[in-house]
Description:
By secondary structure, this protein is an alpha/beta fold. The chain is built from 13 helices and ten strands. α2 crosses α3 and α4 packs parallel to α6. The protein is globular, with a radius of gyration of 21 Å. It comes from Allisonella histaminiformans.
Amino acid sequence: IIGKVNRRFAYYNPKLMKKLIKGQRLVNMFKGALERGEFTIYLQPQVNRDKKVVSAEVLARGITPDGTAISPAEFIPVLENSGQIVELDRFIWEEAARLLKKWMGTPLEPLTISVNVSPQDFEYMDVVNTFISFADTYGIDRKKLKIEITESSILSRRVKESRVIDRLVDAGFQLEIDDFGKGYSSLNTLKDINARTLKLDMAFLQMTEKDKKRGEVIIESVIQMGKRLGMHIVAEGVETVKERDYLIHLGCDYLQGYLFSWPIPVPGFVEKFGWQFGL
Ligand code: C2E
Ligand code: CA
Ligand code: CA
Ligand code: CA
């Protein structure tokens, strides 16, 4: 009897159970949440070497009934597990296209916008045609849409075999390798990738005092390598003036991070940076 009980209870891991229940609750909540407007986009600026805003990254946020924003760290992994990330990303990308359309013919027209793509998107939807159809529906300039794909996605068999990257580039979209350096085969990615921009993972800036020197060696090498390959380099996670000056000194083309702005709602973004465009 004891054996039986033990075996049964071997499956009961309270921590895992709690996680599953929480996950299931989120999955159920997601149904309809999109329609109820419980997800929205925030924008975080990317600045050039002259500190001028040239682009914005679109970041998903969940909004609770009391108006609190929920970080994607809370829901993206859950939605990736359930496959629902596809629906969220379609929604976010359409919002991005809508925004570009809204800015057309206004002083904000020069801004480009970048969006994120989850590895699951490549499994469960036609990413290339989804982007093409949003760009066409809203009549936007495809060059204005920058598609951030993580290095690990790029290395997946699915992405390689379907030549998604080449097809996106051929269709006229800009491509950014996100979280560069976080994966295991960085050099291999660069060997044959058709992307013009490389986004250096912020982990190297966030090294502890003890490992700082190592982080810097990696940052310097990646920037040098990217530049020699003719790529643009974006540094993300720039939090201090010191980090900014260091990265500019190394030749980074674009910077993004809390130093310039947190991700904020679209109206706040326009209010905060519109003056740079004469608004
Ligand atoms: P990511 O694509 O690497 O986005 C950058 C993250 O770093 C954002 O977190 C941003 O708020 C944060 N960040 C920006 N500046 C700084 C800084 O100076 N210091 C630090 N420590 N962090 C900074 P967020 O918005 O919480 O998003 C987290 C991740 O969730 C994103 O990482 C991305 O992988 C994913 N994500 C966000 N929105 C979407 C989306 O619409 N679709 C998909 N598939 N993934 C998304
Ligand atoms: Ca990103
Ligand atoms: Ca990133
Ligand atoms: Ca830092």
